[in-house]
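Case study 2.
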Amino acid sequence: MPGIIVLGAQWGDEGKGKAVDTLGEQVDYVVRYSGGNNAGHTVVVGSEKFIMHLLPAGILNRNAVTVIGNGVVVDPEVMYRELDGLAARGVEVNHPLISANAHLITPYHQTLDKVTERFAGKKRIGTTGRGIGPAYSDKVNRIGLRAADLLDAELLHDKVVASLEQKNQTLVKIFNRREIDADLITEQLLSYSERIRPY
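Prediction:
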């Protein structure tokens, strides 16, 4: 099966979303392999404009299977907000298949992203504050949460507790912030488990 790869090498805004939308009509699968919801893919269909930050631009092609690969960091809240937003506009899409190994962005990743950026002073990197960098950091450090973890409440809770042990120390002792409640985070993440289970 031949493949088409759309790769951006110019720091964004090269028109990848438009290219994927156009080429998506010729393929069976549209796969997003990396990144997070800091991206912005704009697709125009007729007179309607669709902006997606996490979902692959090819999701509007109902003939292609859309896949979110294990190199993507997924914020479940953003994913379902985008899917629900398309549905509210009357756009029927196939739910994307999600790699069980795709790492999750959690509220504590977003908190750490914003706090570290704020305290960086002149060394700020201009993060979007969406938790993408901290989620990738957890992935590299082998302590991240994966999509499959949403299907096992006990495992998910244990992993959240373990991850927050160090992160809460950092938040409290370095940044003078409050601890993040592991039970609250687990409960929030589990609210997505039934929707994600089939995919």
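The mean pLDDT is 89.
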